[in-house]
Amino acid sequence: MDSPPSLLAAALLAATAWLAIGLLGLLPAGAAFVRRALFPAGAAASLALAALGAQGVWYPASSLVLPLGLPDLPFHLRLDPLAGFFLLLLGAVAAGVSVYSIGYFRDEAGARLRLICLQYHFFLASMAFVLLADDAYLFMVAWETMALASYFLVTTDHQRPAIRSAGFLYLLVAHIGAIAVLLCFGVMHGGGGDYTFDALRAAELSPFWASVAFLLAFFGFGAKAGLIPLHAWLPEAHPAAPSPVSALMSGVMIKTAIYGMVRISYDLIGAVRWDWGILVLVVGAGTTLFGVLFALMQHDLKRLLAYHSVENIGIILLGLGMSMVFFGFGHREAGVLGLIAALYHTLNHAVFKGLLFLGAGSILHATGLRDLNAMGGLIRTMPATAFYFLVGALAISALPPLNGFVSEWLTFQTALQASLIEHGVVRSLLPLFAAVLALAGALTAMCFVKVFGVAFLGRARHSAEKAHGDARLSERLGLAWLTAGCFFLGLFPAAMLLMLNRVAASLTGSSLSAQALESNWLWVVPTQPMQASYSAIIFLLVVLAVVLITVRLVRVFYHGRIRVADPWDCGYPEQTTRMQDTADAFGQPIRHVFGPLYLMKRHLPGPEDANPRYSIKIEDRHWYWLYLPLARLVEYTSSKIGLLQRGRISVYLLYSFLTLIGLLVFVR
Amino acid sequence: MTPAMASGVALQVLQSLLVVLVAPLVTGWVNICRAWLQNRSAPSIWLPYYTLAKLFHKDAVIANTASPLFRITPYVLFGCMWLAAGIVPVLVTDLPFAPAADIIALVGVFAVARVFGALAAMDTGTSFGGLGARREMMIGFLAEPAMLMTLFTAAFISDSTQLQTIVETLAHREFAIYPSLAFAAVAFLMVLLAENARIPVDNPTTHLELTMIHEAMILEYSARHLALIEWAVAIKLVAYMAIGFALFLPWGIAPAGDWAALPMAFAALGAKLALAGAGLAFLETLLAKMRIFLVTEFLSTAFLLGVLGMLIHFLVRG
Fold first, then answer.
1. How far apart are CA A316 and CA A320, in angstroms?
2. CA A15/CA A87 separation, integer angstroms
3. Minimal Cα distance from B116: which residue of A?
4. Which chain B residues have a beta carbon less than 8 Å from that of A491?
């Protein structure tokens, strides 16, 4: 693996291996073959791809032209540091998910599993090609394959109408987004040359058209990433898919949209403007708060996680937006820091959200439940899953020393560079976005206390008592892999900082300050040692040491005697499991504080009710002011256009005749 | 190991031990002051130590519904608070462990403690545990951004998120009242009251079921576990006071390598803690506990004050 072109060729081989594995799934072999041979092979290809991607970051970009595609339009491939980084993300998460799938799909029938295997590996391969593409044509082909493969995966349980409609909504939004991306390529193309990324990079755009291209890309990729108000499909579609697929969609697929935004704005358009940054920040802040506030209202575990994906995309955009603002004002070091923070959070979110979705899958498998309100006390029946899930929950809550904290810390550090900016209003705006991030972080912590507390702790609520056993070995392996990722990314951030600095340098030509790069593996120093530093390892060691000393001292000086008794609870007798907080009860302060945000339909029982029922339905206002009016508009217009369709051949001939006349008049 | 490093480590150990050992004394002092102000005869200042000793000796009773998390949590809480109190410069600025965690990480440490506390409260599956956890997390999500905003104001003034650098910058400027710091100080005080479960947000002495927050969370704990939690609460109060001193009263803290300034630093710390404890007791006597949902307004005011402080810093550069 010395020369860069062979690196790209190997990456191409790994991605093609996924395609081949998918096709092998069509062989009329048993389900055991698919599970025991194909998914492990897919995991091996993922690992290879992750390693190649990590290598690719450190080598100069290399490109390749494939003799495939339309005549005159061969496929161009390129592996540069940015693509390498995202390949690492894709491969690392996919490896864990593929291993997990071996155990997860154990009850699937052969025919269905073969189909899932095909779609699953095509989905992976298409994401790899999105990242490797070096011309708009291949990019769009891969992008659409990705949308289609994931659509079929979402509708795996297509017997249920709710899942069919979720899939339809997903496909619709995906295509609206794809049209915008397509138009964006058209604008960047500017009329001359071909559609290779090299040509797009070389095209000179006026500031106006550059902004148009950026807006189209932001809209198009935003639809895929789930920015408000384009998010509505995400909490419907992600939970509908089988859990490993949800993990891939939330963990990796929406990150390809981030890839697209970074690729187009930093690489293809090139000159980033600060007003784009403000737009990204405002949308990002809205997305962040909206995502977490709606996540707090959910009691379906997978829907809740999907809303958190919306939130985390918002957090990534906060870093990205700050980076754009700094670049726009010419503070390139701070801009690089923001870009690094955004990319770091992209990777972190992929790892911990993958972990959490897989954990949710294990719960679903063991108990048949997705509703938090029916769970409880699972830590006793599934201790291993509980541990992995706890790590994921702490990581997403941005608690040190895990990985979520590092990237949010870097985002805060970026915001604290605000005093560099000369523009007074923008300078005072940036810290406000940091405040949004702080609020979102604290709300996330609340949400995951709710999830873990209601699902794993406390006493089993009646219907969850039939829970049988913990996750299987392969499931645990997948979970353990991603858990290790959370620890690694949290404890050794300096290595990642160097890697991301390389990615940012290859994109923008600038890098972090020399002092930041000199720091050793123990310390993260984003700017200068006097300004800020963080060492997760020392942090963890000190906490561990202090805890162990305390345990030891207590044992030496006192005793370890323990009596076990019924819970006390202020001496109240007759405790039932119904008296525990449910997920909805835990969200009550949020409903109170942020009430006007939600569309609530609530039914409270009276004091005399013999059979009290409490129900609450919380809806997203976006449906009523945006989606449904839009749907009605489309329906109305199409019904009017439908008037043209008379079903009589003579009328259609008349149309052709009129069109001909029109053409003769206007086109000379 | 160089002499400078050795002296740094020695001072680090000294400060860490000092805050842990002194913390119950500060709690005792606050209780005495409050008793005086309320015309009650005051308990001994050593009472918190007697209570801790008594609790450590007892047999622990654990609910049969509890998981291992329940037993780990007191140690995690204690460890987090000890770490926090150890890295805030109260005596000296030269602390070798301090660069491992800046102010943002410090807020993270408190968040870890809060999350574990809330999880342990939900662990036994009782109604009060869930109630306490829910309210605690609500206060947490309101207080944490406000806390960060006040810290950011100081960070912008000294162009650093390292507490050491902040203290050194703020202690060596000319004496003038910075309007931005004044706003931040008020916001910080409000956050301190909320985060330490003091009146008007919570009442540390209540056991009235429906009004308690922090007490509801630790209802199921007994003996050594309870002792560790009570101790952690005392350390947390000292840690918050120490952050307040570092940001708003950074005078008297010994600079790096200056052993001669240490006695002065001890005296300054003693005086500051005594004043702060008396002030806290005074505030708690003056105010009444507010309804739980008024806490929202209280803490969003704190948040807005913090933001205002930051904006003022940008407007007047001071």
1. 6
2. 10
3. A449
4. none
- A645 occurs within a structural domain: yes
Residue A90: count of CB within 10 angstroms of its CB: 28
* Structural domain count, chain A: 1
Tell me if B133 and A581 make a contact (CB, 8 A cut-off).
yes
Given 3-state DSSP classes, what are the helix, strand and coil percentages for chain B, each rounded to the nearest 5? 75, 0, 25
A404 min Cα distance to partner chain B (Å) = 11
Give B67's contacts in chain A (Cβ within 8 Å): 379-380, 457
pLDDT in tens, A306-319: 999 999 999 999 99
Q: Between A536-557 and B223-248, two packed helices, what is the crossing angle to 10 degrees?
A: 140
Q: CA-to-CA distance for A450 and A462, rounded, in angstroms?
A: 19
Contacts B109 to A, Cβ<8 Å: 400
Contact between A534 and B30 (Cβ < 8 Å): no
Domain assignment present for A281: no
Residues A462 and A579: beta-carbon distance below 8 Å = no
Interface test with B, best of A407, A428, A569, A591 (most B CBs within 10 A): A569
For residue A162, being part of any structural domain is answered with: no
Q: State the ipTM, two decimals.
A: 0.93
CA proximity to B75, closest of B120, B10, B42: B120
CB–CB contact B56 A531 (8 Å): no
pLDDT tens by residue, A121-149: 999 999 999 999 998 889 999 999 999 99
Q: Out of A379, A418, A531, whose CB is closest to B162?
A: A531
- Across residues B236-260, what is the average pLDDT? 83
Q: A572 in contact with B at a CB cutoff of 8 Å?
A: yes
> How far is residue B192's CA from residue A401's CA, in Å, rounded to a whole number?
24
The residue written with tokens 């590996």 in the block is A121
Test A400 with B123 for CB contact under 8 angstroms: no
* Partner B contacted by A202 (CB < 8 A): no
| CA atoms within 13 A of residue A544's CA, in its CB half-sphere | 8
Contact of B253 with B171, CB cutoff 8 Å:
yes
Return the C-alpha torsion angle A344, A348, A349, A351, nearest 10.
Answer: 140
Option in B65, B296, B311 nearest A593 (CB): B296
**Token digits for B234?**
């005392």
The CA distance from B296 to A638, in Å, is 49
Cα distance from A302 to chain B (closest Cα, Å)? Answer: 21
* Residue A345 in this model has a pLDDT that exceeds 90: yes
- Residues listed for chain A: 668
Residue B41 has φ and ψ, to the nearest 5°, of: -80, 135
Decide which of A413 and B93 is more confident.
Answer: A413
Who's near A107: CB < 8 A, 6+ residues apart?
none
**Amino acid making up residue A311:** E
Q: Is A379 on the interface with B (CB under 8 A)?
A: yes
Give the integer Cα–Cα distance in Å for A616 and A637. Answer: 36
Q: Going by C-beta distance under 8 Å and a sequence separation of 6 or more, which residues neighbour residue A132?
A: A8, A11, A12, A15, A77, A78, A79, A83, A87
pLDDT beyond 60 at A374: yes
Query: Dihedral of CA A393/A399/A400/A402: which sign?
Result: positive
Token pair listed for B267: 């005296």
Q: Rounded to an integer, what distance in angstroms lies between the CA atom of residue A574 and that of residue B228?
A: 30
Mean pLDDT of chain A: 88
**Does the N-terminal peptide bond of residue B48 adopt cis geometry, omega within 30 degrees of 0?**
no
* The predicted structure's pLDDT at residue A633: 94
Report the alpha-carbon distance of residue A328 to residue A322 in Å, rounded: 10
Which residue segment(s) compose the domain that A647 sits in?
623-666
Contact B118 A453 (CB under 8 A): yes
Question: Does A656 reside within a domain?
Answer: yes
A579 closest CB neighbour out of B76, B127, B134: B127
Asked if residue B112 lies in contact with residue B76, where contact means CB atoms within 8 angstroms, the answer is yes
